[in-house]
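Quick one: structure for this chain?
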Amino acid sequence: MIAACEADLRALFSMVIARELTGYSGWIANTNHIEGSKVTMAHCTIALNMVRDARVVTHFESGFNYGLTGRLLFNDVTGVSVSSDFRRMGIFSARVVESGLLSDRMCRTQAILDLGVNSSIILRLAPYNHHVIIPGNVVKELETIAGVLGMEVVKYTQ
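Got it. Here's what it folds into:
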């Protein structure tokens, strides 16, 4: 079952695509920190089949025991973000540097991703704040899907 938080239909759309491409729903994440080619992404929930050492922890904003954390199972990922009008799809590929509960100052599932380019590009090009992180490199497949749907593709490269 796929579920998207915060009534984010763009992320839900991306998660359905992720599941069909990989068998995994993908992980909704926000950009929290940018430094060089690395970006720290975080959110307070993730599908259990995408992490090892999963555990329930406090939710970042509320303090209640509603958060999940775990370390991503994947070394390579693709990030996708869709604009509110569903006309643009932002895409990046990255290598997972570290993941898990790395800091208590952000949402509980966290990952440091290396984009291989200046990660501040996300701030300039992202169609929306949420990205869905998908296991593996599925950039070409996402470009094809966007093309079929008449969406503009925005790749996070320099």
